[in-house]
Amino acid sequence: MEIKFEFVPDDLFQVQKDFVPRSVEHKKIKWTIYSLISLILLMLVVRSGFDLSVSVIFLGWLIGFPLIYNPLALWSIKRHIQKHIDPKLPGLTTLSVNDEGIERRTPLYRVFFDWSQFISGREIEAYYLLYVSDKEAFIIPKRGIKDKVEMQRLNDYFDRHLNFEWARQPF
């Protein structure tokens, strides 16, 4: 079975949108920053004699930072992807799916993943993500799948060869 599509930098960003909220590393960074700055602001509140303006800043930080961390991290990642994308990555891509695994081919490179290399998988709105580690995913854009018959064939390969619970809840 072959799937052909144009791989674009936004495909990488979509993987990050799935990864950042679930990432252990991002949670550690988020709560380390949150704790350190909260401690500093708390010391300023106490030192200021519970001045109203400093207290409001402290409360705003306590409430606001957990809400804005993921959007800020994703914005930063998107900028990084746009500036530093590997020129070999975007372009016409062909995936060959068979009982041995999945091969990704572009005009510049070829890589093969055996089914046993995938440790987890998720289906999100426009992609299948097959993780080979907790930080690296193999991306299959659904836009490259021609019709429901081809999508069913791909899902049959997943069901036969992937030895983990497949997360099929798009969000």
Can you write the helix and strand succession as a string? EHHHEEEEEEH
Give the integer mean of the pLDDT values. Answer: 86
Spatial strand arrangement across the major sheet: 1-2-3-4
Task: Provide the low-confidence segments as ranges.
Answer: none
Total helical elements = 4
Structurally, the number of domains stands at 2
CATH fold-level assignment of the largest domain: PH-domain like
Category by helix and strand content: alpha+beta
Per DSSP E runs of 2 or more residues, the count of β-strands stands at 7
CATH class of the largest domain: Mainly Beta
Q: What composes the largest sheet?
A: 4 strands, antiparallel
Fraction of residues in β-strands? 15-25%
Q: Kindly provide the radius of gyration, computed on alpha-carbon positions and rounded to a whole number of angstroms.
A: 21 Å
Would you identify the CATH architecture of the largest domain?
A: Roll
Portion in helices: 40-55%
Shape: elongated
Domain YcxB-like C-terminal: 98-148
Organism: Saccharibacillus alkalitolerans
Protein name: YcxB family protein
Keywords: Membrane, Transmembrane, Transmembrane helix
Short description:
The protein has 171 residues and is of the alpha+beta class. It has helices at 9-19, 24-47, 52-84, 148-161, and strands spanning 2-7, 91-97, 101-105, 110-114, 120-124, 127-131, 137-141. The strands form two sheets. A four-stranded antiparallel β-sheet has the order 1-2-3-4. Strands 5-6-7 form a three-stranded antiparallel β-sheet, covered by helices on one side.
